[in-house]
Amino acid sequence: MGLIHIDLFTTLDGVAQAPGGPDEDTENDFAFGGWQAPLIDPVVGAQIWEGMQGMDALLLGRRTYDIFAAYWPNQQGDIADLFNRLPKYVASRHALNPAWARSSLLGENTVDAVHELKQRHDEVHVIGSLDFVQTLLAEKLFDRLTLWVHPIVLGEGKKIFEYGTVPTNLRLLEPVVASPKGSLLVRYERLDGTPAVGDMDVVDREH
User: Fold this and answer.
1) Of 151, 139, 143, which Cα lies nearest the Cα of 185?
2) Is the pTM of this model over 0.90?
3) Is the pLDDT of residue 207 over 70?
4) Neighbours of 195 (CB within 10 A)
5) Which segments of the chain are extended strands (E)?
6) Count of CB atoms within 10 A of residue 39's CB?
């Protein structure tokens, strides 16, 4: 069975709204669109490309799909070639831009549709798509969570763990890597069950 990867750029306070540009998502008068641009460096760029190796499908929310569909078909390069040839599944009830080949709508039942994708593909990546990610988190419909945590605090904007997030166990897959500009690459896998609790007094006595 395949894996569902969520790949997100975030600030230290968990904001993931509109990292790519001023007009990406201005909902709620968000004033910091494009906050990631000054913090990108070659290390992060290489990490992003390396993380795409093995990807065989994209799963996107509607806003991210529209941004990608307007941009990537007209671009050249490794990422453009990859995105343009991959099958793309979109969480939306509205018709898609027919100009971006191999695009189709996700089934109406999100849970069943995502499980079907896992039967069909090995590595499905959800990039951005923050509103749709809330559904995946709430339903535990993901297997891997990759975050690039940037050294800024915004104090406003949509956050990764916002509405509907349920208690979930995660395991760090590899050591955290810092880029020259201070961004941290953190990769997790989702584990079964819910977080345990304990008593720190007991822990202290045992150690």
Assistant:
1) 151
2) yes
3) no
4) 9
5) 3-11, 57-61, 88-91, 103-105, 123-127, 144-150, 169-172, 177-178, 184-191
6) 18
Amino acid (one-letter) located at 188: Y
Identify residue 139 by its one-letter amino acid code.
Answer: E
**Quick check: 61 and 137 in contact, CB under 8 A?**
no
Vertex 58, ends 56 and 61: CA angle to 5°?
170
Sign of the Cα torsion 106, 100, 142, 19 reads negative
Split at pLDDT 50, 70, 90, the class of 205 is low
Q: What is the pLDDT of residues 47-74, one digit of tens each?
A: 999 999 999 999 999 999 999 999 999 9
How many structural domains does the chain have? 1
Backbone angles phi, psi at 168, to 5 degrees: -145, 140
Say if strands 169-172 and 177-178 run parallel, antiparallel, or are unpaired: unpaired
Domain that holds residue 174: 3-206
DSSP label at 34?
T
Tokens of 170: 């995660």
**81-127: pLDDT as tens digits:** 999 999 999 999 888 877 799 999 998 899 999 999 999 999 999 99
CA distance 93 to 132: 13
Question: Residues 59, 116: contact at Cβ < 8 Å?
Answer: no
Q: Are 35 and 153 in contact (CB under 8 A)?
A: no
The domain that holds 77 is classified in CATH as 3.40.430.10
